[in-house]
Amino acid sequence: MEIEPTILNESDLQKDFKGVWIPKKIWLDTRLTAENKIILMGIINLSNEGVCTENNISLSKFCGISETKISESIVKLVDLGYLFFKCFNGGQRELFMTDKCYMY
Questions:
Q1: What gap in Å lies between CA 91 and CA 73, rounded to an integer?
Q2: Hey, what domains does the chain have and what are their CATH numbers?
Q3: Nearest CA to 55 among 102, 92, 12, 3?
Q4: What is the pTM of this model?
Q5: What is the DSSP string of 57-96?
Q6: What is the DSSP secondary structure assignment for residue 3, as one 8-state letter?
Q7: For residues 42, 44, 49 and 52, what is the CA-based torsion angle, rounded to 10 degrees?
Q8: pLDDT under 50: residue ranges of the chain
C-alpha cells in the first residue's frame, strides 16, 4: 500500500512564503545538523518581527520533521544562542531570534 505524501499549500502558511535561504554563518556552523538548520529557518520564516509563536506541532508540519526532533533542536538552538524563549499562559511559548540568526 502506497502512502500519500502530505503537501503543504498556501493556506497552511501564515505569511507569504517564498522559500528558504540559509545565511553563510549558520550553514557553516558545524555544531548544527541539517535538521537543526531546517528547523531554525522554519522558525525564522514563521516568525513575525523576530518572534515565533508556533507550537511544535505546527513547526513539525511546516518543516516535515517529527515533534521530538523539533523539541530537541529548539533546546540545542537555545543552548547555542540562536534562540531564546518565554513561556506564559500555562505553557504557551514565544521563540525569539537572537542576532546570530541574522549574521551574514
A1: 18
A2: 35-102 (1.10.10.10)
A3: 92
A4: 0.80
A5: HHHHHHHT--HHHHHHHHHHHHHTTSEEEEEETTTEEEEE
A6: P
A7: 50
A8: 1, 3-7
